[in-house]
Amino acid sequence: xxxxxxxxxxxxxxxxxxxxxxxxxxxxxxxxxxxxxxxxxxxxxxxxxxxxxxxxxxxxxxxxxxxxxxxxxxxxxxxxxxxxxxxxxxxxxxxxxxxxxxxxxxxxxxxxxxxxxxxxxxxxxxxxxxxxxxxxxxxxxxxxxxxxxxxxxxxxxxxxxxxxxxxxxxxxxxxxxxxxxxxxxxxxxxxxxxxxxxxxxxxxxxxxxxxxxxxxxxxxxxxxxxxxxxxxxxxxxxxxxxxxxxxxxxxxxxxxxxxxxxxxxxxxxxxxxxxxxxxxxxxxxxxxxxxxxxxxxxxxxxxxxxxxxxxxxxxxxxxxxxxxxxxxxxxx
Amino acid sequence: xxxxxxxxxxxxxxxxxxxxxxxxxxxxxxxxxxxxxxxxxxxxxxxxxxxxxxxxxxxxxxxxxxxxxxxxxxxxxxxxxxxxxxxxxxxxxxxxxxxxxxxxxxxxxxxxxxxxxxxxxxxxxxxxxxxxxxxxxxxxxxxxxxxxxxxxxxxxxxxxxxxxxx
Lengths: 332, 166
Fold this sequence. Notes:
Chain A is α+β, with helices and mostly antiparallel strands. Helix content of chain A is 45%, strand content 16%. The longest helix of chain A is centred in the last third of the chain and has 26 residues, at 218-243.
């Protein structure tokens, strides 16, 4: 049935991700390798992990339909960049999808661990297991002063990009995100919309990530990120508690719930907007809805992921119809 | 007054910069000012030029032209790095260390790596640049009229000299 409002400051946090960029020394970066050389790098890494008994599923990106690759990016398992070109790229993924290792993205290795909620340290430790294991078999490109030598000079140092995915409808509605983003930027964080282009953010979902990789340890960066995420979550809560008192906002939330209950067709953009309002209402007790299911639907009702679930390429009308039917389940 | 960079055209862009507390005047022609990433209206050094979204500007290429040196591992020249905005392999960071330094300083400040390295690097210590090496590079930077690199090197020399005195 419906999820009661838990009303903690962590309601805004959806998930935490840590990504480590690593390269094997004395081997050019993937962009400078031909397909056979990339295959050799990939084969060496896969064989090593297999010999070490790692239970990871191997996917050659070139074997996927384009929508299957895009779905992996929609589900945050790979980078959009990794989905955009398939040649010589391999994805290794754990069964629970917490660990994903991209081979021959911009760097030879991008080791990623995702955890639900705010778990910066746990996500780092998850990625570190594979980092340490792989560094016992391969000599990573490393310099005592510059740290890990990666393709993009911005990524040298720890090579760690840690991020927290947050739903921030109240801060968006009150126009506070631009100011928060500017402040976060000065403190060494980037705040970006996770869905939609740069101009418009869909579903008020933002990714807050560290930009500083030099002069700071991984643990310091993780602590700083956690502090930043908690501060933003506290601000979101304060803004939401004020916002929810406004009759106009409560009307907006309930109208959104009404549309979800009655719609026959629903586009992805419309769903993101409606779910964002209803989630805000559900967290603060204005409506009854299943919050964990809303979190899942933000991802699973994206166009490419719907094709994957249907195991075929659906038409836009078919997707809109299935989406309208599925989204109603948040009230059951 | 002739442009300090090409020494052919008349200088139409005049800038004053404070380097280590000393005012330095720079006089360039319009073409060189644009090539060096000094906008005619911006009036300040641009860390990134307009080269394919890369981190190194065309200005960096011109100023730091390395006369044919190539990385043995990937075959990249410094011009290739500047053109693509990315080194071709990890060894490029070593081969073109001096030339990449101003860009890395722009991106990361003076910070050095402070994280957890791989196990093979445990116990190794970074070898600091010696004063003589730094002075040599400063002289080269001045010869190439690479003012940004010169400022960075001058700071490093000053800081290292102070440490040695202590």
